[in-house]
Amino acid sequence: MVPLVNVIIMAGMLIVVPLGLRLVDVPRAVRITWIAGAVPGAFSLWLPRGPGAVALAVPYALATAVLAAHAATRLRRRLPSPREVAVLTALAAPSVAGVSLLWERAGHPLMGFKPPILALTVAHFHYAGFAAALVAGLVCRATGERRASRAAALTVPCGTALVLAGYFVGDWAELAGAIVLTAGMWLVGLLTWTQVRRLAGDRLTGALLAVSAAVLSATMLLALSWALGEATGLPHPSIAWMAATHGVCNAAGFALCGVAAWRRLRPL
């Protein structure tokens, strides 16, 4: 499972986040800082845990901190709208991944979480953290900030925060987060399918949007089934199965296709 998770994380570090940052007016200096940290951070994934891997993970953690600081700067400048709440969440979420990667690469638990769980946390906060919130914000902007799109822009960050809280509070809180996040992501998918696709100027963009929206119906159902099983003890997919299905489909189908489509719709 480790090589698969590493590939998913690398795609988030080197493709999804850099492309996504260009869609929300992040300064060039911040984007360059991200690449400068993400490249060694990606290499660190393939080294044995220890000082060498930690040394390469440090620039990545610093880059996530710079991105979070930029989010704080944006927050001071204006009272955030629902769309901006989603964007700020996207910018802040990788900082959780940055801290998690440092401890995972050192081979030490963090707040009781062992390195394998920390690796999954790194992946989670590139996709459920950054990509999901980013796309929710972009959908809100593209659809004229209607009531449904504003709801999605708030529900996705709220669900992500609840899932994070569930790591510390317990499985039932994580299940509540999964329910809220799933509702938000299904709403994002519905709006993408019914509204945003109309804005596509060519078949490729429309197809990328369609794939990104359709994938959510299955991947978030898997997330719900896993969270429900963890909370209740009912049979549910294993972590390895979740990485191979939920993780791969969210990374390739939702995030990569979605960000690529939004790059083609950049004039919005």
Proportion of strand residues: under 5%
Number of strands: 0
Please tell me the overall pLDDT.
92
Low-confidence stretches: none
Shape: globular
Element-level helix/strand string = HHHHHHHHHH
Rg, Å, rounded? 17 Å
- Please outline the major beta sheet: none
Query: Which structural class do you get from the secondary structure elements?
Result: mainly alpha
Please give the count of helices: 10
Q: What is the terminal separation in angstroms?
A: 39 Å
Tally of separate domains: 1
Q: How much helix is in the residues?
A: over 70%
Overview of this protein structure:
The chain has 268 residues and is an all-alpha fold. It has one domain (2-264). The protein is 82% helix and 0% strand. The protein is built from ten helices and no strands. The chain has helices at 2-21, 28-44, 51-77, 82-92, 94-106, 115-142, 147-169, 171-194, 203-232, 239-264. α3 runs antiparallel to α4. It is globular and about 50 Å long. The chain crosses the membrane at residues 6-24, 53-73, 85-103, 115-139, 151-169, 175-194, 206-227, 239-262. InterPro entries: YndJ-like. Keywords: Membrane, Transmembrane, Transmembrane helix. This is YndJ-like protein.
